[in-house]
Amino acid sequence: MTEEHRNEDRTTFALPLRVAAELAGSFLVCFTIYMICTFGTAIYGLDLAFIAVGTAFAYFAVTVALGAISGGQLNPAVTVAAMLTGRTKVLDGILYVVAQVLGAIAAGGLLKWILPTSDKVTIKTWLTPVVNGFDAGSVSNATTSQASVSFGINLAIIVEVIASIIIIAAAMRTTDRSGRPDHSYAPAVGAAYGVGVAMTYTITGSALNPARATGIAIFAQNQKLSAEPLQQLWIFWVASILAAAIVALVMIIADMSSKHTAKKPASADSAVDATVESDDQAADEPAQIADAEASSEESEDSAADSSQDATPDDDEKKD
User: Fold this and answer.
1) Do the domain assignments include residue 309?
2) pLDDT value of position 265
3) Which residues contact 137 (CB under 8 A, 6 or more apart)?
4) Residue 196's pLDDT is what?
């Protein structure tokens, strides 16, 4: 099957199926990340590289599996950027965001349900590495507080915005104007999430996706963490939407600029054609004048000949 046929097939999926794909995809991605950050770090003490690579492959695998149905946005920030640039219809985008958040909440609920606890291993032990936050809510708070420093709100917003810009830009760059992803979408987006985690995990726990932050924050609330997750959740939505707006604005300006630039050569060609035509007309004028003079001389000669021919006849009549 050709790429053109595959693109045509993707346009035939009904909206409910596309929304279901976003819900299922969000659930799978978020549950995988939650598992990596809880069981992986709490039991084996896995490092940042493992979390970054695991997150990258989670998005990559789920996008490969479901991207052909809905586009594999799986992130409200990507969806908002797609809506702002006209790649996703507004109604579709709103339903996608709702599905993404519900999928993340389902993943958070399932994780909370399966986590084993005891007097020595409390729920706080499990949830601290997976909850997104800043300052006292940062995953590095236990370490930074000993050095009398903290990762405050400004730092959290800056790194989340920059990392989200990388992710959104990668997603937008590998989709066409109708929102269909190309063959490089999954690896590009997966790599972008990996880079984002490497940038942000020690500071905010790497939200990079407000749905991912929301899904675990709901079930980590009132669990005696250093900071209440729902009170800090807003910055992950603000950072993501801001990043989406920045990417969309740049894309819109670039698109307008390219259209304006495309018109200039056409105008220049028209001007050149007009100049050439004017030069041709100017060059033809002497020839036209010469032709007119020649025609005039021929007319005069013909008139003279006619006069001479008429004279003998007149003399004969007189005789």
Assistant:
1) no
2) 60
3) 131, 225, 226, 227, 228, 229, 232
4) 97
pLDDT band, residue 298 (cuts 50/70/90): low
The string of DSSP codes covering 208-227 is -SHHHHHHHHHHHTTS--SS
Q: Do 204 and 135 form a contact (C-beta atoms < 8 A)?
A: no
88: left (phi over 0), alpha (psi -120 to 50) or beta: beta
230: domain CATH number is: 1.20.1080.10
Q: Which of 206, 15, 218 is nearest to 102 (CA)?
A: 218
Contact at 8 Å (CB) between 65 and 24?
no
Could you tell me which of 129, 92, 115, 319 has the C-alpha nearest to residue 229?
129
Q: 178 with 90: CB under 8 angstroms?
A: no
Rounded CA Rg of the chain: 36
Per the structure, the complete domain to which residue 10 belongs is given by 3-262
The pLDDT assigned to 15 comes to: 94
Within-domain flag for 288? no
- What is the percentage of the chain residues whose pLDDT exceeds 90? 63
Cut 0.85: pTM above it:
no
Phi and psi at 270, nearest 5°, equal -65, -40
Max CA separation in the chain (angstroms) = 154
Q: CA of 30: how far to CAs of 26, 33, 78, in Å? A: 6, 5, 16
